[in-house]
Amino acid sequence: MLIVQKYGGTSVANTDRIKNVVARVAKYPRQGDQIVVVVSAMSGVTDNLIRLAKEIMPLPNEREMDMLLATGEQTTIALAAISLHALGVPAVSLTGAQAGIVTDGVHTKAKIQNITPKRIHELLNEGSVVIVAGFQGQTIEGQVTTLGRGGSDLTAIALAAALKADLCQIYTDVDGSILPTPHLSGRKKLEEFSYDEMLETGQSRAKVMQSRSVEFAKNLESCLKFAPA
């Protein structure tokens, strides 16, 4: 099987958590599966980078903010790859651009226009786990772009579609989701839900997944699975 997994910032918040994620990931190549892992920046890193920029200038240039914020995910992918190496598992980290993700030129909230996953397929066929930086891409002119907050979900789903993956798994630090209703009583956690139900949750204040990524998955009829980390 070819599997795409995404881990958010709290799942990779420190080196111990990265090691926990990697221990789970390492099982797949050992059983003969190919796996691509999309990761976010470590929890708090993106907010800290924004704070640093605003200490210098209240409204920083959006192009430069994309350059700055993209470094958060690049730290995580390298640490994850190093952690896999420590377990004896071949792994290669790729930025969004190296993974073939091409976006439009709207800085800080770019849209994915095309993905050419040739390099990912080559690395998978060589037996490597591929770790991809979420949340980012590159314009056709070579400008670094970011996909907006929560954009790592979109990265994972778009890659799963481009790679024709058998499964796309979005791991998070919640146990499930509860749909908004007029009354609090009678609510119960959902273990499975439709794309429309997930959109309803995402468009409330739950922020479990980026709504744009769920819409993308629905349009592609991707095999998307939501799971607790």
Keywords, separated by commas or semicolons:
229 residues, alpha/beta, Carbamate kinase, six-stranded parallel beta sheet, two-stranded antiparallel ribbon, 10 strands, disordered C terminus
Brief overview, please?
It is built from eight helices and ten strands. The protein has about 230 residues and is an alpha/beta fold.
Structural overview:
β4 (101-103) and β5 (112-115) form a beta hairpin. The model is unreliable at 222-229 (pLDDT under 50). It contains 8 helices and 10 strands. The strands form 3 sheets. It has a 6-stranded parallel beta sheet with strand order 3-6-2-1-9-10, sandwiched between helices. The chain has a two-stranded antiparallel ribbon with strand order 4-5. α1 packs across α4 (62-86). By secondary structure, it is an alpha/beta fold. The chain has one domain: Carbamate kinase. It has helices spanning 15-25, 27-30, 45-56, 62-86, 118-125, 151-163, 195-203, 211-220, and strands at 2-7, 34-39, 91-94, 101-103, 112-115, 129-133, 136-138, 144-146, 167-172, 224-228. It starts with a strand and ends with a strand.
The termini sit apart by 21 Å
CATH architecture: 3-Layer(aba) Sandwich
Taken from the alpha-carbon principal axes, the silhouette is: globular
Order of helices and strands: EHHEHHEEEHEEEHEHHE
**Corresponding CATH superfamily:** Acetylglutamate kinase-like
Number of strands: 10
CATH topology category name: Carbamate kinase
Task: Kindly provide the name of the CATH class.
Answer: Alpha Beta
Low-confidence regions: 222-229
**Major β-sheet, in short?**
6 strands, parallel
Looking at how many chains there are and whether they match, the oligomeric state comes to single chain
Count of discrete alpha- or pi-helical segments spanning 4 or more residues: 8
Overall tally of structural domains: 1
Q: What is the percent of helical residues? A: 40-55%
The strand order across the widest sheet is: 3-6-2-1-9-10
Mean of all residue-level pLDDT scores: 85
Q: Name the beta content range.
A: 15-25%
